[in-house]
Amino acid sequence: MNTTLRDLGIDEVDALVSLYQHLNAGDAPPSPEAVQAVFRHPGLRHFGVFEGAQLIASCNLAVIPNLTRGGRSYGVIENVVTDAAHRGRGHGQAVIRHAIAQAWTMGAYKVVLTTSRKDPAVWAFYERCGFDSGDKRAFVIRRPA
């Protein structure tokens, strides 16, 4: 089947939220206000791979203004997900490589990606996409419940 890769629009949020169940099963859907805020944010883009009309892979890219590195921005890729039935076919790599290319086009000097997955196969996947797991160390703090 034919696949396409493109930016997602607000009218595709239901398909995106449905796909996110493959990332974090059981997540509550966002409020309409949250959807509006996310899709209005000028530095945030969502990319999707479609097989026919079905969204099968996605990630988002935030490009953040910066005052170091000569004022060059940096990118952050998050929410990388491929429908479980479509994994292992290159769709995840394609959407990540697209996001990286968009970050370079937008003037970013680096792109950062973090994962909470502990599976070495997931880490190897990101390394095949060009990320260096030894370059930086990530620290995360979560808001208390």
Please describe the topology of this protein.
Blueprint: E1 3-7, H1 13-19, H2 32-40, E2 44-51, E3 54-64, E4 74-82, H3 91-105, E5 111-113, H4 120-128
Parallel strand pairs: 4-5
Antiparallel strand pairs: 1-2, 2-3, 3-4
CATH names the topology as: Aminopeptidase
* Order of the strands making up the biggest sheet: 1-2-3-4-5
Structure summary, number of beta strands: 5
Dominant shape? globular
CATH class division: Alpha Beta
Number of helices: 4
Give the second-level CATH assignment, the architecture.
3-Layer(aba) Sandwich
Number of domains: 1
Q: How would you state the average pLDDT, rounded? A: 96
Structural class: alpha+beta
Largest sheet: 5 strands, mixed
Binned strand content: 15-25%
Q: H/E element string?
A: EHHEEEHEH
Distance between the termini: 44 Å
* Unreliably modeled segments: none
Radius of gyration: 15 Å
CATH superfamily: Gcn5-related N-acetyltransferase (GNAT)
- Based on the structure, what is the oligomeric state of the protein chains? single chain
Percent range of helical residues: 25-40%
Descriptive notes:
This is GNAT family N-acetyltransferase. GO terms for molecular function: acyltransferase activity. The chain has 145 residues and is of the alpha+beta class. It has a single domain (3-128), classed as Aminopeptidase (3-Layer(aba) Sandwich), CATH 3.40.630. It contains 4 helices and 5 strands, in the order βααβββαβα. Strands 1-2-3-4-5 form a 5-stranded mixed sheet, sandwiched between helices.
